[in-house]
Amino acid sequence: MRKAAVSDWQPLEQAVPVDLFRAEVEAWARRLEVTPREIRIRPMKRKWASCSSQGRLTFDTDLLHQPADIRREVIVHELLHLKVPNHGRLFKALLKAYLQR
Ligand SMILES: [Zn+2]
């Protein structure tokens, strides 16, 4: 997910610990009924996150400094790619549905 897709983010003073972030990803993975092969958190330049065709998810460490709703949007977006590999209508419908809960 490109960073430009989220335009109104605000840096927070307090960051969440990596373990908490990882727990958020795992909780959403259970909710979406997907199983990432690997969850990595490391600095990324132009993206918030990416999903490899083998099911490996990488999240930008900058996300630890983002508000909860931004983190949730990026997490759900990437996990959803384990179900739908593109950004078509199905992807958008599912993303909207999950983010409304
Ligand atoms: Zn995407």
Which helices and strands occur, and which strands form pairs?
Blueprint: H1 18-32, E1 38-42, E2 49-51, E3 56-60, H2 68-80, H3 89-100
Parallel strand pairs: 1-3
Antiparallel strand pairs: 2-3
Helix pairs in contact: 1-2, 2-3
The structure holds zinc ion (ZN).
Description of the molecule:
There is one protein chain. The protein has a three-stranded mixed β-sheet, with helices on one face. Helix 1 (18-32) packs across helix 2. Strand 2 (49-51) and strand 3 (56-60) form a beta hairpin. The chain has 101 residues and is of the alpha+beta class. The protein contains three helices and three strands, in the order H-E-E-E-H-H. The protein has one domain (16-100): Zincin-like. The model has no long low-confidence stretch (mean pLDDT 90). Zinc ion (ZN) binds next to loops.
